[in-house]
């Protein structure tokens, strides 16, 4: 059994389609099929059920996949420990961060880290919370930056920022004269919000339900930039992190505090438990937390 075969196997588990998996791996489909057959022969049982064009994992395939995660986790641990011998002179660091914090929380830390350690290959990916957790568990990320509450037995979280949400309205909207608004404003004002699959929207929905109503946005959009563009054009108002709204500094939008209830989320660094936290991960995390606390 070779590591290459296990890599091929894991990719096929993700795609459940031989042609797509082969394309993702950059090999010919017959080569992939041959390697999977060899692996099944060595295991002594089918790993996939092939019915027509449909491919499904067998119970044995699911068991092997779970062990593959552990195998590649241990390999990454070994690589990280060995790279420690090089200090911060070389290596890589992959971070998954919420789209709501990438633009305004990370830039200063990213720039400082790169200037201090230019030979560390740094990757910052804007992702949703669920994707960050999944990639951490599959060892595709070293660190995540997420909104709590979100708990998992295999993940460690380090909260470092309480993020306040605020209403953003067009600069000429009557609401901008108010010192603050309550969440009931969503009953009366057309709104543009993130979809229900986003943690931020789920928080808004939960708070609205405690007040006895469901938010009914006139639009749902998946990026904060597109939402604020709609607000600037007078389509409606939105609720987003105040730090982000202050960061973009759009003169056609006015930020108004929300009270009764005060809307906040807790931002945390998250990483896999029992994983060797390399020097690059530790230094980046320490600098991010220090930078945020100094500004707040």
From TrEMBL:
GO molecular function: DNA binding; DNA-binding transcription factor activity
Keyword Iron: no
Signal peptide annotation: none
Entry keyword set: DNA-binding, Transcription, Transcription regulation
Cytoplasm is among the record's keywords: no
Entry's Gene Ontology cellular component terms: cytosol
Residue span, HTH lysR-type domain: 1-58
Family: Belongs to the LysR transcriptional regulatory family.
Official protein name in the record: LysR family transcriptional regulator
Species name: Bacillus glycinifermentans
Lineage of producing organism: Bacteria, Bacillati, Bacillota, Bacilli, Bacillales
